[in-house]
Specification:
Elements: E1 4-11, H1 17-35, E2 47-51, H2 55-64, E3 69-81, E4 86-90, E5 96-98, H3 99-104, E6 110-116, E7 126-127, H4 146-158, E8 163-168, E9 177-179, E10 182-183, H5 184-197, E11 205-207, H6 208-222, E12 233-236, E13 244-247
Parallel strand pairs: 1-2, 1-3, 3-6, 6-8, 7-9
Antiparallel strand pairs: 3-4, 4-5, 8-12, 9-10, 11-13
Helix pairs in contact: 5-6
């Protein structure tokens, strides 16, 4: 039996109310998505949510909760440190932790990491007022029974080699745009995954690489260059895993 775990870290630090609402929306939307059949029907006890954790607390949680497969999600501030050539994330007001340090502490042989934060060369963020309604969260619907969704998701995990797959909301030097209803990237990723689940195809598994490409296309199509020019990026370790991020029924196709 495969063990699975999700860590969702929301770190609005001490920014204004609107920024805090955006991070809160990301955290809630990711919980709803991964609890739904589309996201693999994770149980509540498989999901750990942390807000502005200290590095000591986050590290302790990662070390204390090993699993065969772990999804780690971060929403908040980040930047690219030119002196060390590393992506760094502000998990709270005082602690900035390198992406690789976080990844190294995840106690799984198979890891999917989603970092939704800026990679600009300055500690800055791009926030847009008035995009969406405050306290409006996403809902995810699927006709797949939860037990079948877990089975499909688990089989796809086992079909992959050990390693890590990292999905970044933007590329080096770019800002990740946020609104009160969540980040553009996370909204695009989850909406694209929901749209995929409604397609008439024989696919039963949405891979992270496929979802990343769909997210990039969604951002280009739905937001002007004045709103964002962010380009999500995906990295994998040597064995090139491509983990599941969504599942659905295979649609029947009539042959004539």
């Amino acid at each position: 039996m495969i063990t699975r775990r999700i860590f969702i870290v929301g770190s609005p630090v001490n920014e204004d109310y609107s920024f805090q609402m955006g991070v809160k929306a990301d955290v809630i939307n990711y919980q709803r998505y991964f609890k739904s059949p589309i996201g693999g029907a994770f149980n509540p006890d498989e999901i750990t949510v942390l807000k502005n954790p200290s590095w000591k607390r986050l590290k302790a949680q990662l070390l204390a909760l090993p699993a065969d497969f772990t999804i780690f999600i971060f929403s908040g501030h980040g930047f690219f440190a030119t002196n060390t050539q590393k992506a760094v994330f502000n998990i709270n007001e005082n602690d900035a932790v390198a992406a690789q340090t976080i990844i190294n502490h995840i106690q799984s042989t198979k890891k999917l990491i989603i970092f939704d934060a800026c990679q600009s060369y300055l500690e800055a963020y791009h926030y847009l007022e008035g995009i969406g309604d405050v306290e409006q969260y996403m809902n995810f619907r699927s006709s797949v029974p939860k037990l079948r969704a877990r089975q499909l998701f688990n089989e796809a995990i086992l079909d992959n080699p050990d390693g890590a797959q990292i999905l970044m909301s933007c590329s080096r030097g770019q800002e990740s745009v946020l609104s009160p209803t969540g980040s553009f990237f996370s909204y695009a990723l989850l909406t694209s995954s929901q749209n995929w689940s409604n397609t008439n195809s024989r696919e039963t598994v949405l891979t992270t690489l496929q979802a990343g490409k769909m997210t990039t296309n969604f951002l280009k199509k739905n937001y002007s260059s004045d709103q964002t020019n962010q380009r999500p990026s995906c990295f994998v370790t040597r064995l090139r895993p491509n983990f599941p991020i969504g599942v659905k029924h295979a649609s029947l196709q009539l042959l004539y």
